[in-house]
Amino acid sequence: MRIGELAEMVGLSTRAIRHYHHRGLLPEPARRTNGYREYGVRDVVVLARIRRLTELGLSLDEVRDALADEQGRDLREALVALDGDLARQEAAIRERRAKLAALIDRAELHADSTVSGELAGLLAEMPAPGGEIGTLERELLALLDMAPGRDEVVSALRAHAADPAIRALSEDLARRLEELADAPVDDPRIAPLAIDLVRGIPANLVPSDVDLDHPFNVAVLESLKPAQAEVFRQAMRQGEA
């Protein structure tokens, strides 16, 4: 039979069969005088095995090794390894579904509802000032889920936010920043606000080497009004001192 007939019989494409030839899974039969390759029953059997093994999830390299080992030792090892991978995927899927169920059961959902449980706890415990500054603060905090050392930072911020004086200071800072929305960059309120802003950050989280030219920091400052951005610039410089 020719390659098209073989492909139809085993439910594969001719392209897949040629790829198996190229990868060494199926020997290429010699061409006949008419220029066509002729396939036999053995080729059907091998292709059926390849299809069954790939549908189980084995890679082509694993399939090739399994077919080469008549005793089935490599196949057993590959199947055991695959079963372990599937078990880990199954556990991960169960965990993801549990998280989804918890989200679906919430009365209210918004874009940042999908943060980790640790970060969600922090956001729930911190003051939630209104206005653009309050919104930006919570959006930036949500980015902690992607940051290295997230757990340590979240723990420090949660302990910090539990202090009533710090909570009151945070709300006051947000209010004062909002009041600078239309102020010039030389407004006299900027310098004392920058000092208080540094006070509102846990001492162990105040960076000592802030790069004001880092693209992310530049983007954050550009999202603020000029006077508000100047407050953060001065606060960052104080952190370096």
From TrEMBL:
Ranges for the HTH merR-type domain?
1-69
Q: Which domain of life is it from?
A: Bacteria
Pfam families in UniProt: MerR_1
Q: Which UniProt keywords apply?
A: DNA-binding
Report the CDD domains cross-referenced here. Answer: HTH_MerR-like
Q: Which GO terms describe its molecular function?
A: DNA binding; DNA-binding transcription factor activity
Q: What is this protein called?
A: DNA-binding transcriptional regulator, MerR family
